[in-house]
Batch of 4 targets.
Target 1
Amino acid sequence: MTDPTDTHTHTDTHTDSHTNSHTHTDTGKVLAIASHVVSGFVGNTTTTFVLNLLGLETGSLNTVQFSNHSGYRQLRGFRTSAAQILEIFEGLEQSGLLEGFDMLLTGYVPGEEELRAVGKIAREVKKRGGGFWLLDPVMGDQGKLYVSEGVVPVYKSLIHHADLIVPNQFETELISGVKVTSLATLSTALDTLHRMYLIPHIVITSVTFDGASKMACAGSSITSSGASRKFVVDVPIIDGFFSGTGDLFAALTLARLREHSAAAGLLSTAGWIPPDETATLDLPLAKAVEVVLGSMHLVLKKTKSTRDRILLSQAAEQGEKERHVQVTRASELRLVQSQEELLRPGLRYEATVLP
Amino acid sequence: MTDPTDTHTHTDTHTDSHTNSHTHTDTGKVLAIASHVVSGFVGNTTTTFVLNLLGLETGSLNTVQFSNHSGYRQLRGFRTSAAQILEIFEGLEQSGLLEGFDMLLTGYVPGEEELRAVGKIAREVKKRGGGFWLLDPVMGDQGKLYVSEGVVPVYKSLIHHADLIVPNQFETELISGVKVTSLATLSTALDTLHRMYLIPHIVITSVTFDGASKMACAGSSITSSGASRKFVVDVPIIDGFFSGTGDLFAALTLARLREHSAAAGLLSTAGWIPPDETATLDLPLAKAVEVVLGSMHLVLKKTKSTRDRILLSQAAEQGEKERHVQVTRASELRLVQSQEELLRPGLRYEATVLP
């Protein structure tokens, strides 16, 4: 046998400029609490891959294990009970692993008791590490709840512990009480959420107004006196129904916000709140969202063109139910095939000040 | 609001040479059935990240959800029952998602009934797509079983359905009945496994002989007449105990074997068995293992130096148990920080023919 260390020690060739383009050296660690599906990309399946890829080591506590996401209208699997969630938490605690997390991302939690358990864990993690909590108040979309009704008041009781929330239009209305039908009411909703929950950062994702050909994404970071700094970004609508876009948005936003907050020297501060003199369009949150929306657009464009190619190559299933499943399968996010788009989107959407 | 599509359509800048270095365009899809831990990298936590990163879209069916791996000697969480595993399988089946998988990677399954359920799924997936099954017969290490005893005969009944097995030294002895104490007996073990189970490919990972300063990794791909084509690679031993190295090895081997089998035009053949005229050192399996061991070495080197740095910066815990947990925490594989080493190790270890 030859000694391979003599003949092949090319250890230097593996470092190239690529390594410097994201933050692999000062790794942040995220505890992600959300759903798990065996096939496809939603919830933690998306979150862990995207955050790990972007250099944030991510541990996932799965609130369910389902065969596939609910967009198929049929699935099998099981939920993790509140008792099981708390048991895993105790396991992390007894080995000193909770202290390792400096960020939290919470998403889909189907039941009220389970959400209380998740809230307990999040507060404990924050207590130890002063962690940053991105809370995605996953409750429903387009007027429909997809969690049990008891979940809504529990979210309302938890939001003031979080640092960033990323509700969609429907969830914004549920937690703010403001009906969002125009830029003016969108702006009011942001003010109301800051005031009601003292939440440092908000992004309202994917808002559509009647008759508009684009979607709006709006955000705000609070000042020391509790005032809003509001911005909005317009993005083109991509035709089709794609599950898990909210989870992708949340994961990317956490990674990019951390990057821009690090650049602004904010990571050791509570809530990563920029100084009052930071102008709205210079907010780390605004810069983060601009990049995130670039990645989102490119991933969705690739997903849509892949879907169209797949459906063209297949005979259309008969029966409405079979056809729906066929289209849903073809519409799974193309994340693995979009690593460049996630890492270096190139494309940026520009924020403007929202009065 | 400005229209960002007018001002910032840099969509072309996101494709660079990096994209061509692995196989993102012709994505293979893997069903990975193994353990899940919330903190750290073993089982599916490793497998899904590594395979997705290397361009193979991976769905994970988790056989357990534990707070951490068993190397800590304490953990909390729960197992997925055989009934739950089969229920998820039915969910995949009813939405036509099983057909989507063209590879299988099975690892840690703690109980006999659960392993039977996994075997059923693997055979079904193979039946539909002619998929390639990498079976890691996870049973124990260094003379100790860490699954229930009933698992051993179930593995023995399943191996002949698989395409590649990656037992360690102890597991090799369990399934072949050959005690591995020298290169000669290592070679006999490979012959015996091919003959007993008609298994196309074998890699015996991390073999150590008394008094040797290096580890051996040996493999073989069968010929059409059932003969072995055996090779061995020597690798330096890295001091320390690192959990999940077997899982990392399995995931990398699947990805690299597929790459080299694709280059040899074998992906549409059953078992990816190279023609009889392929010389041992030209086997896709031999080439794959050379690259895999390069990545393994670089990841372990980085993990070890990170561990040493962490332990130096911390006061040593008193109590044996606390100290063990502290060292184990510091020894978690540094996968997220080793993306370049996983993608482009540069370092290669050279195989030689094993007589």
Note: Residues 200 and 273 of chain B are 7 Å apart (CA to CA).
Target 2
Amino acid sequence: MPSTSTRDRIIAAAAKLFYDEGIRRVSVDAIAGEAGVTKRTLYYHFESKDDLVAAYLEGRDRPNFAWFQRWYAEAEGPLPERIRALFHGLSRAARHEKWKGCGFLRTAAELANLPGHPAIVIGKAHKQRLEDWLCGLFEQDSIREPRALARQMVLLIDGAFAVVLLNRDPSYMETAGDAAATLVEMAPRAIR
Amino acid sequence: MPSTSTRDRIIAAAAKLFYDEGIRRVSVDAIAGEAGVTKRTLYYHFESKDDLVAAYLEGRDRPNFAWFQRWYAEAEGPLPERIRALFHGLSRAARHEKWKGCGFLRTAAELANLPGHPAIVIGKAHKQRLEDWLCGLFEQDSIREPRALARQMVLLIDGAFAVVLLNRDPSYMETAGDAAATLVEMAPRAIR
């Protein structure tokens, strides 16, 4: 990969191994090996394994958020149907053989005893950005309590990730989409 | 603890360390140390660390399920309010300083590359039991699609665990309770 910087190659290797096997199972040695660099080179770019975990999630922030935006943009119909499309997108993603849940949530689960870890801070910001985006969509649709509804959507999205990681039945994501569509439809709207 | 069997003492030590620090971070040595037994004694009772992880979750199945049943039994008012009480119970639990999410979901997150692991099988069965119990409550209330609604409740419960583990804001559990109460209230009922 001649056009990829060494730093990006290390992040890509860390992302692959952390997502596939978990944070604590993967050693810095394994990441250096996967990236094809020496440990010395790795430590030139990253001070610690914690920095690598943070860089892994930092690297997932925009692409994951972009998926949600694309699923919404490509959907048709009224708002409840477009929100349902987010869950349909998740269910298709979960059917991929390499799917292993949400990297942000899995990292929070592994590092539950370190709530101030830089990677957790990045995970919180990612989910907050998703919530803010949904809140904006609901505001535009004159929903009276857009923030509360946006929080309910994030709960269903993360619930879908958590449930399907455990039971490996992506149809639960469609069920989450049904719940989300009902809640959006039933939400009181301001009179225009 | 003279009245506790050695096996139970080992499970209690494993449960404490796995829940506090995570599965992969905790060694069999640490568990033996915490339980005050030799490694030889530990291996007399448990063949492997995997067995200990399974025994840890097996031991959480009944107590965790009993909490939900108690929160429901102690609640008053119509069904949506009694369902809301489950989430209020979760939110009180999450305010405890030792709270670190749901052990079943965290284990699924850590062992995402081992979906057939005995501990994951136990976790799936636990959540299925919760879903079946909710489904039974909805059937009694003449809800027309009790299974779908029960699945939506489990999605909100596990979503609450996942979201609050990441952002440490237990008020999201009350928000999940609002969503659950709305969905139960809006669910079509069969005409008696």
Note: Chain A touches chain B through 47 residues (CB under 8 Å).
Target 3
Amino acid sequence: MNNFTFYSPTYFVFGKDQECETGKYVKRFGGSKVLIHYGGGSVVRSGLLDRVKASLDKEGISYVELGGVQPNPRSGLVYEGIDLCRKEGVDFILAVGGGSTIDSSKAIAAGTVYDGDFWDYYMGKPVVDALPIGTVLTIAAAGSEGSPDSVITKEEGMFKRGASGEGFRPKFSILNPALTQTLPAFQTAAGVADIMAHLFERYFTTTKDVEVTDRVIEGLLLTMINEAPKVIANPNDYEARANIMWAGMMAHNNCCGVGRAQDWASHDIEHELSAVYDCAHGAGLAVVFPAWMTYNMHHDVMRFAQLAVRVWGCQMDFANPEKTAKAGIEALRRFFKSIGMPGNFEELGAKEEDIEMMAHTACYGNGRTGHIGGFASLSEEDVANIYRLML
Amino acid sequence: MNNFTFYSPTYFVFGKDQECETGKYVKRFGGSKVLIHYGGGSVVRSGLLDRVKASLDKEGISYVELGGVQPNPRSGLVYEGIDLCRKEGVDFILAVGGGSTIDSSKAIAAGTVYDGDFWDYYMGKPVVDALPIGTVLTIAAAGSEGSPDSVITKEEGMFKRGASGEGFRPKFSILNPALTQTLPAFQTAAGVADIMAHLFERYFTTTKDVEVTDRVIEGLLLTMINEAPKVIANPNDYEARANIMWAGMMAHNNCCGVGRAQDWASHDIEHELSAVYDCAHGAGLAVVFPAWMTYNMHHDVMRFAQLAVRVWGCQMDFANPEKTAKAGIEALRRFFKSIGMPGNFEELGAKEEDIEMMAHTACYGNGRTGHIGGFASLSEEDVANIYRLML
């Protein structure tokens, strides 16, 4: 196991009606003038925003609002948020929404207290200082509620890039599974795919002897496989929603990724898809992962076989472990299909003619130097080949 | 799943040689005058204490020392530590040792800033204020390095009781698996039993639909079952030590116990054993748990069968699930024996004639009102019957 540090100081508040306590937690973590940041109409229509505002009013906390976050959140709104926070003297950012809203909030939180262009962080500068952030989560997916990460798309060039640092860990996150019950099935399933992808990115490692993190990842994957079909069948299954929501946090706060090399090429490969076609990130990942696995299986067949046996319940073929490894990948493909995820470029709305451009941007865009991935180091040609497996 | 909050703000520093950075972390978390608290000679003989002091010297941090913590740490030394901290103006407590040292440090940290008797906390007062605590861990066992808990034995009456609260979460914990390589096999194995017990206490629940925490607990148990025999066979197996050490933290920081009723009767039953016979806590738990399981299996046979199948690899007997449940308990018994743990009263050094006294103290001592346990509510008679199963 590699040396590591792990620091997840977020205060998680989980369960029914907890959003009505938002004001209490903003106060506890020092907020007195809040930016409420959110996306489209659903948080307004559902009454969630009103409940959050009422809880702030109750504590005598003043606030300004900025809505309009889109999926794959854009730099333009971040700049707008930074200006607003500076003008209004905001000292706390409250994200009410999903991963896109939280990621946009993180960018605003860092940008507001930084003299330069916030995009510097997305070009690799570690995030240390940022305004304190709280979240009220509305979809189990990105894990941004407990992570030190944020992904933003720069509108000039449509570059989608991530930033990271301790300043991005939310002070508190409110997770009420009931808030996810109104999500359309497609978004729920895309969230499931995103959570599973965060686990796969960590599972595929070159680090030996990482039993504890292997086993926790496998346990979280088994949870997703058991619980996801329940919420697709019955969107109001609170218990299944709750299991998925906590798994989503644990999948990405890195408690199961510590001490091991991780991969993350699939995220880079997917980011090009959602940057170019504006598809749901999780839907993109559902298409990318079986292709990435098929292409890279030969680097460590036994690890893929282990996943197939322990998580998908495949029988181990001791004479031919590669068959077991492949059976696991096919099980994943069937699973994503069963919850309504796309399975190829066509279903995703992607186009073959863009493959070379996307492979190039994935490997060279925004300061990258030609190879991506920690488990298998992929060249531009490899990435293009992986895209072709999705046709 | 029940509503819950989860807050684990400890900064974990994991890996080889990390104790040499202790001073840096004391500084980061605001310490300027430190009490170094430790147990017996091993941290001195091994040179660990010198390395820790050198790292404090390097940062210009002054310190006083208090050694002499015993297993099952006593109230007497806590009072001594409180006096010393007040006299010397200590503002940070640094525990160098295992669970006993950390628990004693926590008691001193709370007692120093409290006007009353620190034992009030061990009678049920929640711990809010305490001096900041850092730890350098030398045994994977108690999980105190990441938990809000502490257990102390009051010398008058030999009452062993726990206290809990956010003030008890360490600011940082340094986990170097190499420091555990010099432990005697018995202590290593007792640590393993303690970690597994923390998982069982959470696993046996009356809360329905807790798949995510079930699966994580099972993953951590599988880790222990795979890794423990390696370190018993080869004490210098750093990788196995590392897996056990991280599992030990995750087993008890409550990330896998949230949202579910927990049991904890077995800990209460064991606390009487280690209070009366001063046996190793983990060794006591290794004797208690199979007996507790046998006695309480009928409350939820399918949960015991689930554990047997998923963790011990037993074949499910669909015609007679109780047989599967029992096979799992027998597998646990064999496992504890295989790593050198005692299996009954005699091997533990406990005496049949004390059973009624211990059962009474477990159920009525220190303000308890007659029943213990969250999965199965146990009377004094039940507890005595469980002790008898250990004969």
Note: The domain at 185-389 of chain B is CATH 1.20.1090.10 (Dehydroquinate synthase-like, alpha domain).
Target 4
Amino acid sequence: MLLTNHRLLLAARPSGIPSPANFTADAMPARTPGPGEVLLETVYLSIDPAMRSWMSEGTGYQPSVPLGEVMRGGGIARVLESRSEEFAPGDLAQARLGWQTHPTLAGRHLQKLDLTLGTAEDWIGPLGLSAVTAYFGMRDVGAIRRGDRVLVSAAAGGVGQIAVQIARIEGCRVVGIAGGAEKCAFVANELGADAAIDYRAEKNLSSAIARACPEGVDLYFDNVGGPTLDAALARLREDARVVLCGRISQTHATEPYGVRNLNRFAAVHGRMQGFLVFNYRERYDEARAWLAARRREGRLNQRLHVLQGLAQAPIGLGMLFRGENTGKLVVRL
Amino acid sequence: MLLTNHRLLLAARPSGIPSPANFTADAMPARTPGPGEVLLETVYLSIDPAMRSWMSEGTGYQPSVPLGEVMRGGGIARVLESRSEEFAPGDLAQARLGWQTHPTLAGRHLQKLDLTLGTAEDWIGPLGLSAVTAYFGMRDVGAIRRGDRVLVSAAAGGVGQIAVQIARIEGCRVVGIAGGAEKCAFVANELGADAAIDYRAEKNLSSAIARACPEGVDLYFDNVGGPTLDAALARLREDARVVLCGRISQTHATEPYGVRNLNRFAAVHGRMQGFLVFNYRERYDEARAWLAARRREGRLNQRLHVLQGLAQAPIGLGMLFRGENTGKLVVRL
């Protein structure tokens, strides 16, 4: 096979929201797999907030992507050629593929998709890492209980929409915060939230939360940090739990927002916990089995925002930080 | 008996640190107890940070003290005359006595001191509510584990000094933060902390914590809030716990400090919990049994800072917020 691997390399570290100017494209012959390796054809790439930190130096939980190297990114690929005993041509697998069309990777770095759990679209969507993040955040970190009054920020986003649906499945009242009327309609009508708050339309977010959650909040699942977190803290009920999952509002803040309402934790015997999905990596199978079962029952969906073609990946990253996506952002190759 | 009850009434709500000008003294005949009541002679009054919030309108967890009424405060008293079947003259009891020398209270609002656990001085000190607060904060909220690297702020204060000693008893390395060389010497030499940090002498508290806790902090017991909390958050280790017990640095802040380092919680899978000792009121006996046993073993002490006479109570409150006390502040009548 004479295949060309189209790649996007990190060319310049961004100072604000990433754009195509931060990347350069190149093309080279796909590398023939060595022993234990497989040659892949990328099908989907996932566009996630954490990728911004990988583009900068020393700001994240993982090493930065070196300048001039393929941008790091997870996704789903089809095996074209295999020298690994675990994979055969046609298999679908997920891995840190990088932003390239035809990566060659060690088989041990791939996870074969279990297609009895769901399709490739399910694996990038409601069985993907965003969904798994929501599962551990709501259940393990947030210790969700039937009847909880739940509040979720970035409720239309990749993690948020699964968090909202988990709250419904668990028998909770749930309110979502999102930016704009269209996202709020999606949160209320398609995800089934009891109410949606459009943070862009509200002058006083804390008052809006009080109106939407008149009994207060037992469980706040935070994907944004900053003033939204502060506003939610003011509405915590007795024994409330706050899950620090993401802080997308702070990614490009010129200076970090200082959270003032921590005194609420003593007043209500509340607790707050942060996590990364990798803290639970040994239990991903458990999460996917649960998510797949709820999907089969028709109780769990994930809207994907699909962009077409590798060149859209940098554009998607910008959309994510401007809040222009509705649904989990993926690139289809 | 013709006894005079000397009282201190709240005369004006403070705008900053309370002073004697916020109170007026009066005297009236002690009230003869009715059915179920007892006439008491106050022996000790406890001076605690929470009292400041009781002096203001609508800022605390409990209703404010109305102007013109006796200042609220807990303490220990001796029964002089009883019309309650549960009390006899000479019994010692603790209660919300108020700032008065001879209160008459319903017997059901008193708790008789179990003198097999300790003396009256023990009950205002290492068996008192500050000590009980440290017990639940370190053990239940903080989930202290053998080998934890523990950091305690206001380590020379009423709650802090017990927290430091609990950490030692539980087999932990413990560092205390206090203000001034004398308090730090007390924390290191008498409480047995492995190191003490004088926050008044340090330009960069976070660096000072890094030097004193080179492996980071597993458990931070926070009595002060504000910039000290922020500095400690920057040093949290994997699976760290933060106990929000007090926030004395913020009581008189002109505007609330915004805490910036919450991102640390996601990075280390850390959690933070606030509490009030009243959350654990049904388990006070358990706490006192544990504290009394450690006291009998000679492993637990509490230094009291004793002022003499009711008129000193308002002065003590000012000392507390200026950090002028070394040890738990009490007034002996």
Note: The mean pLDDT of chain B is 95.
